[in-house]
Design a protein that fits this description.
This protein has one helix at residues 6-19; strands spanning 23-24, 28-29, 37-44, 50-58, 61-69, 81-82, 90-97, 103-112, 115-123, 134-135, 143-150, 155-162, 169-176, 179-185, 193-200, 206-214, 217-225, 236-237, 245-252, 259-265, 272-278, 285-290, 298-307, 310-317, 324-330, 341-342, 350-358, 363-372, 375-384. The chain is mainly beta and 387 residues long. Strands 1, 2, 27, 28 and 29 form a five-stranded antiparallel β-sheet that branches. A four-stranded antiparallel β-sheet has the order 3-4-5-6, with no helix packed on it. Strands 7-8-9-10 form a four-stranded antiparallel β-sheet, with no helix packed on it.
């Protein structure tokens, strides 16, 4: 992009963003590596420091890398830190900060051909130094796609899928600095269970939503734990679609504690983004909305509930042969939504978005990977949310 065009582009972004009630600032490139940088995850601590982790294809072997930035991503970014050093690939990292501002990272590592297990590292000083890796499980199968939920201080719940039974099932691993607390199997199906997402609500209940093969297609299911993952409710089916329902992501309304749930539905090539609420008292899933209507790929949504009834969704759309990121907003709890605002304009694909709400004043923090000529790099972007 030339210097002549760039200021015009920035003006377009600013005008369009203000129409949605917030200003998206220019993206910041976080990586300059000769290899593929992919699948970033993001978290913040009580000091408003942003922590980002991703996997980088270092000499044909993926390793885990990390950066942080003060002032909610508006300060100075730290130097790149490499967190794994293995002969085999380290992949699919996830990150979270516990109640004592300890930063935790979990990833899966190839321990033998076709067999990956989970590993963990933590930092007690905001990401400046890191402890030795802890191996969390010794599975006979493949353990992948971890999702990390801190429970209080120094206690973690790690959700992942494992194919030890002969098909993919959902598991929860309990771990603390005192040691390994055991593993629970949470799904029992003849088909695959996959795409788990888990988070803790404002009543300290843990929620899990995933895709279960039900009949001939995948449908979303939900479980809840009121005792930090020791016991779990029965499975509740969330969707009843004639097409696949996959890639769930949710957040909780900070005033009403209502779950705001997004996912994609449909077949590959024509998937659409959908939305539902879950009432915290009745457990009812309600208010279904289809959020995309063009007959092209729209999928992998991420969602953030910034205030009472205010919801933000970012998703991947493929209107012209390459993926870009789009943003939609609702100010009435998901009843009505703005038109989509296009966040990225690139010649290559923009994918793997992760978004959180954090900071004082409140703001959206977004990370993603973007294809540039000859490579894939990690980017960060943030938006102010008016009080």
């Amino acid at each position: 992009m030339t210097k002549t065009v760039f200021p015009v582009f920035c003006m377009v972004l600013l005008v369009c963003s203000v129409c949605l009630g917030q200003t998206w600032h220019n993206p910041q490139r976080l990586t300059y590596t000769p290899d593929l940088s992919r699948l970033p995850k993001i978290a913040t601590d009580s000091n408003n420091t942003v922590h980002v982790v991703w996997m980088d294809d270092f000499k044909d072997n993926y390793e885990i890398y990390y950066k942080n930035c003060t002032a909610g991503g508006t300060g100075t970014w730290s130097a790149l830190t490499r967190l794994s050093w293995t002969a085999n690939s380290s992949e699919y990292p996830t990150i979270a900060v516990d109640a004592n501002d300890i930063v935790h990272i979990v990833w899966c590592e190839e321990v033998s051909y076709g067999n990956r297990d989970l590993f963990h590292k933590s930092s007690f000083d905001g990401g400046q130094t890191w402890g030795a890796p802890n191996r969390l499980n010794w599975s006979a199968g493949d353990s992948v796609y971890p999702v990390l939920v801190p429970v209080g201080i120094n206690n973690l719940r790690v959700f992942y899928i494992d194919d030890t039974p002969g098909n993919w099932e959902i598991y929860c691993l309990q771990w603390s600095f005192e040691g390994w607390g055991g593993t629970q199997r949470l799904s029992w199906t003849s088909g695959d269970s996959r795409h788990p997402y888990a988070a803790i609500d404002y009543s300290s209940d843990i929620h899990l939503v995933w895709s279960d093969m039900t009949g001939s297609d995948y449908e979303l299911c939900h479980k809840k734990s009121t005792d930090y993952g020791i016991s779990w409710s029965v499975r509740t089916r969330v969707t009843y679609s004639e097409e696949h329902s996959e890639n769930p992501f949710f957040d909780f309304d900070p005033v009403h504690n209502i779950m705001r749930l997004a996912w994609n539905e449909g077949s590959c090539g024509s998937r659409k983004v959908c939305f539902k609420n879950r009432h915290p008292s009745t457990g009812e899933f309600y208010g279904f909305q289809r959020l995309t209507f063009r007959s092209v790929e729209n999928h992998n949504p991420v969602i953030a509930a910034s205030s009472a009834n205010c919801i933000h969704i970012v998703y991947e759309g493929d209107p012209s042969g390459n993926y870009e990121l789009y943003h939609k907003k609702s100010d009435d709890g998901g009843v009505t939504w703005t038109a989509p605002f296009r966040l990225t304009w690139n010649s290559g694909e923009t994918r793997s978005a992760q978004m959180i709400v954090s900071g004082i004043p409140m703001g959206l923090r977004l990370v993603y990977n973007d294809s540039i000529p000859g490579n894939v790099e990690i980017y960060f972007r943030w938006a102010e949310i008016p009080e």
